[in-house]
Amino acid sequence: MKVNVFKKHPLIICVALILLFSLLPIVWFSDGRLFFGHDATFPLDPQFSVSKSLSIWDYQFSIGQFNYRALQFLFPYYLFWAGLSSLGLPLVSIECLWAIFLFALTGLSMLYASLTFFKKASYSVAFVVSLFYMFNLYTLNMWRFGQTTTLILFAVAPLFLALFIRGLNSGKHLKYAVLISGCSVIFSAGFTGPPYVISLFILPCLLYLLYYVFTHGLKNLKSAGRFLLILFPLFIAVNLFWVIPLFISLFSLNNLLPTYGVASLSYYDFINPVPFYTVIQGTGFYAFQLNMGEYSAVPFATSYSEFPLSLISYTLIILAFAGFMVNARRLIKEPLNLYFGALALIGLLFSIGGNAPTGEFYKWMYLNFPGFWFFRSPYSNFAGLYIMGLALLVGLLILKLSSSSISLNWRRYLKYVAIFGIILLVLSNAYPLVNGDIKAGGKGFPDEQLAYPPLSVQIPQFYSTAGNWINDNPDDFNVLLLPHRNYLAYSWGYAGSDIVQNYVHKPLITGSAGSVGNAYSYKLINNVYDVLGAPMFSDTLSFLNVKYIWFSRELRTFGGLQNSSDIERIEDLLRNQEGIELRQVFGDVAIYENTFWVPNKVYSPSCYYVAENADEVLNFAGMQVANQMTVFIREQADFSEISSLLEKDSKNLNGSGAELEKAPLVTYYRAGSTNYVVAVENATQPFLLVFSESYDSNWLASIDGCDLSGSHFLANGYANSWYIDKTGSFTIKIEFGAQKLVYACFAFSIAVLAVCILYLSKYKLKSVTRYLKIRRSENIYYTTSGDYSQRVDS
To answer: Hey, which bits of 491-530 come out as E strands?
Structure first.
């Protein structure tokens, strides 16, 4: 019997079409070059990224900082790259596959959500909604700026919402709680941005709960509560490996919040918001509006304010809201329309940030509501919710056309005209995603033509060569990056965040605000750049354990703030700096060595000084002879305690140069990413031990299992120190205490996930068995004699 495959397998056709459109990113990589975006967040050294993500302490930046995001990137992000890299695939091919994966995930997620919402809809409607969600200006913006983790959340937000809805409506609470919790591992990398989790996950679910109560009444509120009571703890259990580090970070004294409070966020786009009409259009972000006059980061930016793209963009928005308006009279009978409209409207109003008409409310929330400062980039935080609402409203419009009162033939004709017309509008509106223009560069600043180069790049080989040269040095030292890091433009065709971290595996000292997350070391590090050229520069580097300087000759700070003359001036200062010698040149990268450097990762000082405040710390750097000095700050809360301990061991306490008795011999080795073993020989009296990693209360020292947390102090304005009241020869273990807890949480999450998989596999097996039994009874007929004949297709 002849079968019409389009009618019999519409789901397969929809999935196939979505996968086909997901292949469009292949066009981006047709030139064999990487696509960086303006924030190159993907791992250029995948194996190194995997190993580093296993540690909750990021030793690479800010002389070390707590990294609550570490394990979140592991799966599927870093493992995806590392797995394919181990098979020998080049980075360009891996990035292409990653883009295809994200587009496919986005489309299939919205397809599932559409079929959940529009139960009576045809698959063609669901396909149009999915295509709209895949190709839009928000997606273009996020790709343009390398917001890969944001795109993961954006991709799976409809899936999460659909599973949440099915769990509420079906009554199968445990099944859908397990499904949601298990699937969350796929997008755990996206949870690194709390604002996106709230806007794309929590807010839509809360709105649906209101809709659920409105449509089902309070009588089903108990059922909804039961579902939440199952879902919430199970979700936390599966994601405990990143939830616990997040809470440790939020409540730690050394987290990011004291350094980057509200007062320091005036730069962000809600302060100088883009016009309201551009947010409606979807172009309200840096790729289109930079608040810098005529300059734009993309060549196609002006096209969206001109005919025909401006007409196409606003036509799509009008059609979407038309889907709400044509159903406005039936809001009581069909409140789902109101839900879609609420998603779009709330997403839109929050996306405009400080702009009218709701700008004053947003500013008030920002300044007065605890934690709302997280939403410092309103468009990127909320526009995804706006797009989700628009996509679903487009589906409503097509459904309305399909069920209008006109004749059946005209209704079908109108429906398919709408479908193909909207598909054409969607692809035309997001044409840079379709034809690869997303990689093109924009107009540069005057005398700075590299400000917005194309994002199609080939990274010079000398980066890898220079990085390997430094990595091969077995000493334990830090590397200073020059010039001062901000948002960078490279002469070889890339503008964005720094990429050196992918090639240099040693700890890096950089003034980039994005990488400094420890309040103790932030000011100290940035002051280093201020003393460049001063006689104390080499001593200051030794104070911070800096042996090498990575000087990038090819850099131009984003926006023309760092020009060629600045690079030449810095190079001239280095050339004439006492104690600084040029060691190697690799292309446009010059490696200088600090000849004053001596190993001071772990040491016992023989003298100490007292600074009145943190600003004075570097004044004592020049007094350091070898590693025989440390500095305490009088205004620190623990100063009185450490001074009372040192009183009996030093000649004076006034800070001009108090000498301690002879320090013992101290050696150490690194036993792991967050573990050090220190050997002390011939200690004749109590002494100080200094560990030159950024101070954090989670750094613990112990002797024979006895914790020394009671004598843990801040030294040198950034480092850890312990007062050791023990003599003789012995071993001290230094470890980051939170790491064990994180590993335990990670193991627990894996165990819970395994249980979820086992439960789902048994549940699915029962469903398949039940289905086969039903099919068998339908496909077998019996003779009058009781014997059955051959099986036939029903």
So the answer is: 494-496, 508-509
pTM of the full structure: 0.88
Helix (H) or strand (E) holding 734: strand 728-736
Q: Does an H or E element contain 677, and which?
A: strand 675-683
Say how far residue 668 (Cα) sits from the centre of its chain. 35
The answer to whether 182 and 234 have CB atoms below 8 angstroms apart is no
Structure tokens at 782: 């019996």
Buried b (16+ CB within 10 A) or exposed e, 469-485: bbeeeeebbbbbbbbbb
pLDDT, mean of residues 248-260: 52
d(CA 523, CA 560): 25
% of the chain residues with pLDDT over 90: 37
Round to whole Å and give the CA distance between 289 and 309: 16
Residues 6+ apart with CB under 8 A from 636: 714
Three-state DSSP at 753 gives helix
Q: Give the start-end residues of each E strand in 462-597.
A: 478-482, 488-490, 494-496, 508-509, 546-552, 555-557, 580-586, 589-594
Give the type of residue at 464: S
Q: Which of 256, 247, 60, 56 is nearest to 675 (CA)?
A: 56
- Residue in 12, 191, 179 with CA at minimum distance from that of residue 111: 12
Cβ-proximal residues to 784 (8 Å cutoff; 6+ apart), any chain = none
The per-residue pLDDT of the chain, averaged, comes to: 81
476 and 546 Cβ atoms separated by less than 8 Å = no
The per-type count for the chain, helices as H runs and strands as E runs, is 26, 24
Q: What would the DSSP string read from start to end of 385-435?
A: HHHHHHHHHHHHHHHHHHTSSS-HHHHHHHHHHHHHHHHHHHHHHTHHHHH
pLDDT for res 577: 92
- Name residue 309's amino acid: L
- 582: β partners: 592
